[in-house]
Design a protein that fits this description.
This protein has two domains: 101 residues, Glutaredoxin (3-Layer(aba) Sandwich); 148 residues, Glutathione S-transferase Yfyf (Class Pi), Chain A, domain 2 (Up-down Bundle). The protein is built from eleven helices and six strands. A six-stranded mixed β-sheet has the order 4-3-2-1-5-6, with helices on both faces. It has 339 residues and is α+β, with helices and mostly antiparallel strands. 35% of the residues are buried. Helix 2 packs parallel to helix 4, helix 2 packs antiparallel against helix 8 and helix 5 runs antiparallel to helix 7. The longest helix has 23 residues. The mean pLDDT is 91.
């Protein structure tokens, strides 16, 4: 081929390497710009959710509490959607709120329904059904209202607050309050820090497009994990002796940490299992009734390694780590009081 182009001999290895790096870097930056918007410093910027209505028991509310009216569209691999499944299980809302499962398509880069729902094959179909002409991101979770055939909310932080408070009439565990008034300040404080440096922080590591952006995000991540470890050495949960939404929001990142974030997202300063209190805390939450069923570990690993092409171009899914056995051993946190 090179002779046909007028070359008498093959290109020098250095030239091939430079050309290959240029082509791949250009393609990588193009793909990352589509998948992970960034600022001038190469820091990942997560776009805001667009649907922010709430279920409310107030008179005249557009979306009143009801059993069988709402459903959740979720992906097993998504940590944001996972939050809603955890609260649904803790509150005992499985009979009141159905779920529809989506999975990422490696070829199209969109969420696809495992079974058609509401005449839709993909998540973009659902968004178009709710709002014709919609051109924003199509993400999970989605809280859908069958009565008005629209999306109520696609922000996980809102949805879990709603599930905690507004559907108690249909919950098996209505007395469980994951967002009690006397702890809201502490819960909000933890949520703000954990979102910025842990929940979204792992993505800021994995999706960083400059060395400086990566190092800054990684340092912030492990500074917060160290602070949480110190807190959990003294308290059973983040806000004392009661399980709260702060714990739920942290849990869905922790369960993925050693499995995918440590390797794929380069969050490898320390494994979660190397933190004695954090790892015990993770096991305790995993062992709560109904929570293990929301943690599809094989699917989580497959979705991350198999679908984030810019981070794993070969699509090879690693055999390890196998964290199943680690999650089922005694958590050792019974010595802490619990409310």
């Amino acid at each position: 081929m090179l002779k046909k182009l007028g070359f008498r001999q093959s290109l020098p290895p250095a030239t091939v390497i430079k050309l290959g790096k240029f082509v791949w870097t250009t393609m990588w930056q193009t793909m990352m710009a589509q998948m992970a918007p960034r600022n001038a410093a190469g820091e990942y910027l997560r776009p805001a959710s667009q649907f922010r209505q709430m279920i409310s028991s107030q008179p005249g509310a557009i979306y009143p509490p009801a059993a069988g009216r709402y459903r959740l569209f979720v992906g097993w691999g998504c940590p944001w959607a996972h939050r809603t499944l955890v609260v649904r299980a803790l509150k005992g809302l499985e009979a009141a709120i159905a779920i529809a499962i989506v999975e990422p398509s490696p070829d199209t880069g969109m969420w696809v329904l495992t079974q058609p729902e509401l005449g839709c094959q993909t998540l973009p179909d659902l968004y178009q059904k709710a709002k014709p002409g919609y051109s924003g991101r199509c993400t999970v979770p989605v809280l859908w209202d069958d009565h008005t055939a629209t999306i109520v909310n696609n922000e996980s932080a809102d949805i879990i607050v709603n599930l905690n408070a507004e559907l108690n009439a249909f919950a098996r565990h209505p007395d469980l309050d994951l967002y009690p008034a006397d702890l809201k300040i502490d819960i909000d404080r933890w949520n703000e820090r954990i979102y910025a440096t842990v929940n979204n922080g792992v993505y800021r590591c994995g999706f960083a497009q400059s060395q400086a952006a990566y190092e800054q995000a990684c340092q912030a991540l492990f500074t917060t994990l160290d602070a949480i470890e110190t807190t959990l050495a003294q308290h059973r949960y983040l806000c004392g002796d009661r399980l709260t939404l702060a714990d739920v929001r942290l849990f869905t990142t922790l369960i993925r940490f050693d499995l995918v974030y440590y390797g794929l997202f380069k969050c490898n300063q320390q494994r979660l299992q190397d933190y004695p209190h954090l790892s015990g805390y993770l096991r305790e939450l995993y062992q709560l009734p109904g929570i293990a069923d929301t943690c599809q570990l094989d699917i989580i690993k497959r979705d991350y390694y198999g679908n984030l092409f810019p981070l794993n171009p070969g699509g090879i899914i690693p055999i390890g780590p196998d964290i199943n056995a680690l999650l089922t051993i005694p958590h050792g946190r019974d010595g802490f009081p619990i409310a």
